Amino acid sequence: MSQSIFSRPVSMDYEHDHDRDHDRERDGKDMQAQDAEKNDDKTLPNDVFGDEADAEIKYKVLSWWQAGFLMVAETVSIGILSLPSVVAALGLVPSIILLVAIGLMSTYTGYTMGQFRWSFPHVQSMADAGEVLAGSFGREFLGMGQLLLIVFIMASHLLTFTVAMNTITEHGTCTVVFGVVGLVISYGLCLPRSSAKVSYLSVGSFLSVLSSVLIVMIAVGVQRPWKGELQAVADTNLYHAFLGVCNIVFSFSGHVAFFSFISELKDPREFPKSLCLLQGTDTILYIVSAVVIYCYAGPNVTSPALGSASPIIGKIAYGIALPTIIIGGVVNGHVASKYIYVRLFKGTDRIHKNDLVAVGSWVAITFGTWVVAWVIASAIPVFNNLLSLIASLFASWFTYGFNGMFWLYLNKDRLFRTPRKVFLTVVNLLMIGVAAAICGLGLWVSGRALHEDSGHRSFSCANNAKF
Fold first, then answer.
1. Residue 300 — pLDDT band, cuts 50, 70, 90?
2. What Pfam family does this protein match (any one) (predicted)?
3. What whole-number distance in Å separates Cα of residue 422 and Cα of residue 415?
C-alpha cells in the first residue's frame, strides 16, 4: 500500500482530502485533468526514504499501533505531571473545559497534518512542510524551530529525571551528577536508527506512567492530605491562570514529531488510527488524573504531581515512573537526531547503510543533541517555568498555528466555495489566532516567572526534589 502512495507524483494543487464536497466528487476526474494540464511536469519528490526493498536499514516499518504508542510516549510522559497543579490554579470547571477543548483542537490539527502529508509525501519534518509553504526560508525557519522545541522537551525529561532521583535517593549525590546519568542512559537508548525498535519501549513507557499515576491517585485517596473545600472556579489572576494554560498546551504538544512518525508508517493512510489512540488516551488520562489528584491533594498539590503523596509513596511512584521519564525523552531525542541525520544525507543511499560513516554520524549527532539538552536542563531547573517557556514560544505554533496554515494552503483555491468551507476557513484562522495569543501572553508570563527565579539553582548540586 505504501509503495503505491509514494511512487506516483503529486500535483501541487491537488487536495487529498477526505472531506471533499459532493460537487468535487462528481467532477473529480475533470478537475484532476485540469490540474494535470495546468501543472505539466510540476511534481513533488517521493518520500524521503524511497524504495527500501534492498536497504540494509529500513525505516518504513511502523504499524499504526506502534506509531500510536510512540506518540503517546512522546506526548503523555511529561505533560501529565503538571496538570493537577493547573486544576488547583484555575479551579475544577475551567480546567476540565480547557482540557476537553484543547484536546479536541489538538485532534483536529493533528488530522490536518495527516492531510498535508498525504498531499506532499516527501514531507518528513516541519522543515519540509515549511519549504512547501514558503520555500527555503520556510524550510530553515520551521526546521530550526522544530529542533529547538524537541531539544527543550528532551531537557524537560532530563530535569524530571533529576527530580525523581533526588526524591528516591533523598539527594544521594549532586543533582548535576544525576543529570549526567540521565544523559548517558538516554543517549544509549537513542542509538538504534529505526523507530520500530524504540516503539516497543514506548509501550513500556505508557504502562509506566499509567501505573505511577494510579499509585498516586490511590495513595492520595487513602491518605486524603486535603480535607478542605474544593473550588469550582479558583480566585486567580491573569499571570497564574495563563501559566496553567501554557502547561495544558504543552501536554498536547506532540505535533512537532508527527511528520516523522507518519513518514515511517507502513501505510501513512492509517495515521488517523494512531492519532485517535493518542488523543483518546491522553485526554482521558489527563482529566481523570488531574481531577482525582487535585480533589484529594487540594490546592497544595505539587508539580510534578508524583510528589503529591507521602514521601514513601512518592519514592515508589517516581521509581515506577522512571521508564516513562527516560523513554519519553528518548523518543523525542530520536526524532531530533533523525531530522539532522536525514537533512545531512537526504538524496543519498547513505541513510540506508550500516557503514562507518553512516553509523558514526548517527552516534555523533545523537550525542550532540543530548549534550545540548543537558545544558538547558541545568540552566533552567524550575519545572513549571520550563514547561511554560516551551509551550508559549514553540508548541503554540507547531500544535495550532502552522497547522491552520497547512489547511489554508491545501484549500487556497476553495476557501469560500461552500458554507462548510467557509466554516472550516474561519476555524483554521482561529487556530492561527489562538497560537498567536498563546505565544504572546505565554512569553510574558514565562518571562516573568523566569525573572522571579533568576539564577535559582542553575548548574547547582542543590536538591530540586519537592520533599
1. confident
2. Aa_trans
3. 6
Instruction: Judge whether 248 and 395 are in contact, CB under 8 Å.
Output: no
Contact 163, 321 (CB under 8 A): no
Domain 64-452 has CATH 1.20.1740.10: yes
Tens digits of residue pLDDT in 204-222: 998 998 898 888 889 888 8
User: With contact defined as beta carbons under 8 Å apart, do 350 and 135 qualify?
Assistant: no
Terminal-to-terminal C-alpha distance of the chain: 53
* Helices marked H in 224-270: 238-251, 258-263
DSSP state of 294: H
Specify whether the CB–CB gap between 396 and 366 falls below 8 A: no
- Cα–Cα distance for residue pair 428/407, rounded to 1 Å: 7
Q: CB-based contacts of 58: which residues, under 8 Å, 6+ apart?
A: 52, 194, 352
pLDDT digits (tens, 9 = 90+) for 219-270: 888 888 787 788 888 888 888 888 788 888 888 888 999 999 999 999 999 9
Q: Is the peptide bond before 304 cis (omega within 30 degrees of 0)?
A: yes
**If you search the block for the grid coordinates 524504540, which residue do you land on?**
198
Beta bridge partners of 265: 62
Query: How many alpha carbons lie under 13 Å from residue 272 in its C-beta half-sphere?
Result: 9
pLDDT for the residue 45: 56
CA 418 and chain centroid, separation: 33
CA distance 190 to 51: 25
pLDDT level of residue 387 (50, 70, 90 thresholds): low
